[in-house]
Amino acid sequence: MTADAHFVSQFYGSARGAVTARLLRDRLQAFWPSAARQAVLGIGYAAPYLRLWREESARCIALVPGHLGAARWPAGAPNLSCTADEDELPFADLSFDRVLLVHGLETAENARRLLREVWRVLKDDGRLIIVVPNRSGMWAYWDSTPFGFGQPYSTGQVSRLLAGGLFRVERRDACLWMPPLRSRLVLRSAPLIERAGRRLMPGLAGVTLTEAVKDVYAAMPVQAVPRRLVLADAA
């Protein structure tokens, strides 16, 4: 089952969604403090997070996979939102410096093909961040939020999937120890809960963040070993 773009948009329009986005943006900004003059692509439902780099980037695009429906780009923003098949991204090779995948991998119809497309459009020195629901956290099993849909992942599963897609993991982080509740008390206490959860229950975060780079050497074909012709004497 997949959360469509309308459902995700409604979530981020709520108080709970606003707090969720703020907590995750803090972690994302720690990975990428700046994207000045860079091309940034968000895949899945990334608009609430792309605002971190929208004003300073050379180009900032939010792509919603076709099976999620369409999403409107924030009013007044000079950039772009589009819809396309996740395994046929409408961009040339080596088009982007940064790719953010959020609400995308866990609902992908074919995760490996999606990552191959990301590899294709990402520059050789580019960086990818994947945000996915943590299978050990409660958010993955709470379907009143977008993180409660699709396939949750452990960090090991993400690493293996990335390795199969010719990426190399550089850094990891986690977020959302806050329970996925609408309670005003929980929402007001979210920063305190995050700090306590990070220290006391590091493996039970709601989502994990993984930054990866292209493993260019793994993609290079191995040079063929020269063959030596050996002639056998006729008997």
Spell out the blueprint of helices and strands:
Elements: H1 5-12, H2 15-31, E1 39-44, H3 47-50, E2 59-65, E3 80-84, E4 96-102, H4 111-121, E5 122-133, H5 155-164, E6 167-175, H6 184-188, H7 190-200, E7 207-214, H8 216-219
Parallel strand pairs: 1-2, 1-4, 2-3, 4-5
Antiparallel strand pairs: 5-7, 6-7
Report on the architecture of this protein.
- This protein is an alpha/beta fold.
- The chain has one domain: 3-Layer(aba) Sandwich (Rossmann fold), CATH 3.40.50.150.
- The longest helix is centred in the N-terminal third of the chain and has 17 residues.
- The N and C termini lie far apart (70 Å).
- The relative contact order is 0.15.
Give me a quick take on this structure.
This protein is an alpha/beta fold and 235 residues long. The protein has eight helices and seven strands; from the N terminus they run ααβαβββαβαβααβα.
